[in-house]
Every structure is written in C-alpha cells, then in structure tokens.
C-alpha cells in the first residue's frame, strides 16, 4: 500500500539533481575553510538573506544554539514565544550548554509576540536580575499552523530588542515559506535581525543542514561556537552541494506546497469531528482539532489506511505538505480522512 507521509517536511527526499551534485561535489576541509562547495553555499545564503556572511551547520537546533551562544553569556536571559521550537523542542540546549535562561511570552495564533508584552519582559540593568541578551522569533511558526510574520511584525520586535541592548534572532527554519507566502525576498524579512537561520532539510528537500547568516564579525563568533559544540565538519561539500541546488531550484515550488496545504485544510474543515479554520493556513502546515475522539486514535486510524500525520499536542493533529506530495495525494488523504471521521469501514484504499 502506498504511503502518503504528511508528518513533516523533514521527510523529503533529495531531488535527482541534488544526488548528482552531491556525487560530483568538489570538496576540501571545511574547518580550514577549504571546502569550495561549502564556501559557495555560504556565500549564496548570505547574499539571499542580505547579510555579510553565513555558516553551514548540521541542523536547525544547532543553528539556534550557536546563535544563542553568540548573543548570550552565562546567566543571561533570552525572550522567546511560549510555543517556540527553541523552547519546546531543543532539549533546553541554551540552558544546558550556555547557562542561558529562557523567558517565554505568549505567541498569538500567527506566532507573533505582542510588542507590549515583549517590552514588559525586557529586564532593566539590575544586579538582582538576568540581563535580557536576546529576543528570538520563529517565522514561519511551526506550532501556529505555519503562521507568517511580515517585515512590519519583525521590525517592531527587533526595534524593542535593540533599544534595550539585546540582540535579535530569527529562527527562520521555514523563512523561505514565509517569503513565498508574502511574495517578498527573504532579505526583507531578515533585515533587522542580528542572526537569521534557515533550514535546508525541510521544504527545500536537502538531506541535512541549516544556515546561520549575519554580519562578518557575528558569523566569525558563530563559527567558533559551532566548533565548540562539535559541529565542525570536514569534506562537507558532499552534503552542501544539495543546498546549492535547493537555493537554485526549490524555492519557487514552495508555492505548490502552500496551495496543497490550503486544499487539504478546506477539505478537512468540511469533515465531522474536525475543528479547523482554513483561512488561518498561510504556508505548508495544517493543524486541526479532533473533537470526537482522542487525536492518537485518529492518527492511528489514518495510518492503517496509509496516511501519516503527527501529533503536536493534546487533541490536535498536524499535517505538512512538501516536495513529493501532489494534489492527487491530497485528495486521496482527504478521502481517507473522511472515511475515518465518518467511521466508514474503508476508504478508496
């Protein structure tokens, strides 16, 4: 039985062009700065984000960690959203490795932080309190149905951080999705950030890797922190080659994922026992409430019929569109979801 895997855009497979580029990649020792393929990828990434420099890292979690270590010292504090990936899914890495306290403020349904609340959360210069060293936002926002922040949203939050002497970081794991959804260059969204990260292994379909972009001085420090946490790689051009192909060929097609996600959301919203507002779906993530049974049971029933989904929190299910999923797959997934939601014995499968 064929499987329609909607658990995440991390399940994407590299394209044939990526596989060829990886096989043929010119390589050298990246720790010495001698891998020409990594160097080219870093130059491309920094140029696309409107920054002076970039560094290639193993994962999005590492990207956020080394950015946080660069901006924060031991005993400092970082302000993040209460639904942020940095807070919920990165094993308290900033606290474990950097002695940095995370302070959460509420995300709204788009993933935006209320500017007044962020202003309130910034610590004064006081001997009894940690220094607020960083404010971080996520764009698009994983736990908020792929919600998109525009340049105005980001600019307001960056201004607050900078006015209080803190650095501003964008966890842009899916910032390319945000840029495509808004129809703007990613550099417009990244402009006020001291660091911006983005993931190559999600919607861009690479097998591994993320980028951190910023000023030359900042990225020099990020690179040192990458080495400190064991992220220095040698002939990394073998995998970086896929990133070059991704930036050249995989960005514009993200619009297809967004269209498929909206198609999926509209279909799910019509089904009994499912709570979902399709107008909230801006990019490639669809999160919905299961109202008539445990979400785990709904996911298990989908799996029996060949559709895979993930489970972000109590009573909710997440489906993510990506390269390798087409409109026909979405329609089939909806047939299966309907058979499960209506309690039918079987769907088209």
Would you give an account of this structure?
The chain is of the alpha/beta class and 349 residues long. The protein folds into 2 domains: 236 residues, Aspartate Aminotransferase, domain 2, CATH 3.40.640.10; 88 residues, Alpha-Beta Complex (Aspartate Aminotransferase, domain 1). Helices cover 41% and strands 17% of the residues. The chain contains 14 helices and 13 strands. Strands 2-8-7-6-5-3-4 form a 7-stranded mixed beta sheet, with helices on both faces. Strands 9-10-13-12 form a 4-stranded antiparallel beta sheet. The protein has a two-stranded parallel sheet with strand order 1-11. A hairpin with a 2-residue loop joins strand 12 and strand 13. The chain is globular and about 60 Å long. The C terminus is likely disordered.
Q: What is the mean predicted local confidence, pLDDT? A: 96
Shape: globular
Q: Distance N terminus to C terminus?
A: 8 Å
Biggest sheet, spatial arrangement of strands: 2-8-7-6-5-3-4
What structural category characterises the helix and strand content?
alpha/beta
The gyration radius over C-alpha positions equals 21 Å
Helix share, percent: 40-55%
Number of helices: 14
Number of domains: 2
Provide the low-confidence segments as ranges. 345-349
Q: What is the β-strand count?
A: 13
